[in-house]
């Protein structure tokens, strides 16, 4: 099997970076959810907070890399002004045009929410640290922000997979 350079970047952007971010969400969500004094020993608190900080910041960097590689690499090829571009192929077929008009617009704009929100959760975890154990409202807010980031990234990933299936970037 041989893949083109463009296909490599599509796989790197979506399958590797995007999938890693989506999978890492489970660890970040579990870390925030289970960060309660009744569930963790004093020694466990330090270890969990350290793991949570590393995990959330790794998710943040990964989400930025995913969105930047999609916007400045993959998206430029998708939107080329040639008849064979995926964008042209989708818009030429009325049954597939919605993949561009809604799906790609989501990826183009809403997907940027994921790195912004994930970075804000990283800030909250760094800023409040041990206080997250006692300040349930901040921990819940961070969890909710992380869930919204996950949802925007998950929908963008699904649209990306479906758009690439309907009009592959070759």
Notes on the structure:
The chain is an all-alpha fold and 170 residues long. The chain contains 7 helices and no strands. Helix 1 (5-33) runs antiparallel to helix 7 (136-166) and helix 2 (42-78) packs antiparallel against helix 5.
Overall pLDDT:
89
Q: Helical amount among residues, as a percent range?
A: over 70%
Oligomer: single chain
What structural class results from the helix and strand content? mainly alpha
3D shape: elongated
Q: How many domains in all?
A: 1
Helices, by number, come to 7
How large is the radius of gyration? 19 Å
How many beta-strand runs?
0
Report the sheet-strand fraction: under 5%
Low-confidence stretches: none
The largest β sheet comes out as: none
Measured between the Cα atoms of the first and last residue, the distance is: 14 Å
- The H-and-E topology, N to C, reads as HHHHHHH
Provide key terms for this protein:
single chain; 170 residues; mainly alpha; 7 helices; 81% helix; 0% strand; elongated
Explain the layout of strands and helices.
Elements: H1 5-33, H2 42-78, H3 86-92, H4 97-109, H5 113-128, H6 131-134, H7 136-166
Helix pairs in contact: 1-2, 1-7, 2-5, 3-4, 4-7, 5-7
Quick synopsis:
The protein is mainly α.
